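Before the break, one more example. Copy the sequence into your notebook; we will annotate it together after we see the structure.
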Amino acid sequence: LVRNAVGHGIETPEHRARLGKPRAGTVQVSAVAEGTTVAITVTDDGAGLDMDALRASADALATGAAEDALELAFLPGVSTAAAVTDVSGRGVGLDAVRSRVDSLGGRVSIRSEPGGGTEVGIHVPVTLAVLHVLVVDVGGADLVAIPAAMLSALAPFIRAGVPIVGAEPSCVAAFRDELPNMLPADEDAKRLTRQTLTLAELLERHAPDWDVPKLDREAIVHGHCHQEATIGMSAERSLYGRIGLDYELLDSGCCGMAGSFGFERGHYDVSVKIGEHRLLPMVRDAAEDTLVIADGFSCKTQVAQLSDRRPLHTAQVIKMAIEHGRLGVAGGRPERGYPDVVLDGGGRVRWLGKRLVR
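Here is what the structure looks like once it is written out:
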């Protein structure tokens, strides 16, 4: 819906200026509970739907007339775009939205005013937004909700003894340290606690004889706070030694992001000060060809947004050794060859955007 608002609704800055509108268009997204439904609304202040173009597109497809002309926008293949772009023009946007919402037992509405913009509303039953959880009383002080589907989905694997590998240290620590206290009598929870491993632990316990690809590089390593407090870094130390890294495990304390803490309103300044206390200066002092390694997503994000380096995950370090041999990627900032996010389809790479600080 947002892509449609941008592609079909918002005019060019020059055209908006001629109309007396602000040069920058606005797209607003809201979600509120309304009784037994959740209402999601996407509103833009653009040109509104071009009814003549809708009718022409529908006529060209021989789709027939609709009682409400606005309903033409939801027909498959109908589009007001003059050309197909990366954003719009394929005639599948609103059709796909309605089909999906209909399958959930919801409904879609649309209002449009020529020159005044368009509003598309989605209403779905509130039960579709409710997650089945196990509610656990922790020490009489707090209630913790654990997604019941998690254990159900993993049950066949953990009962068969399959290791569960977590790429994110805080997730591994949650299963290893917190889950057994929340569900002390649940056998599947006990199995999950025993069988959840970091990547380094998996290779140490289940592939001790694997000829680990070698990488003759210097590296600095930042351990995730939650992992260091509950699991430790011994398996990572062993793995980095097997790889051949000349590494230093930094005494860097907390990165300052601390999960969602650094993203929350009012915490930004404190988050930055914590990172600047030790970790960020150490990263900036490292040579450009030194690998910066941090498995925690929040740690990686903090360093990437507050320095000119982006830490690599242990899995990316191994991949570099496999693909480039003992010397790894040539030149400075070797992480540039190993993106964290690759968009499907186009092969385009995009890193995470800046956090909001207000």
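Confidence is low (pLDDT under 50) at residues 61-67, 346-358. Residues 100 and 256 are 40 Å apart (CA to CA). Try to locate both features in your own notes.
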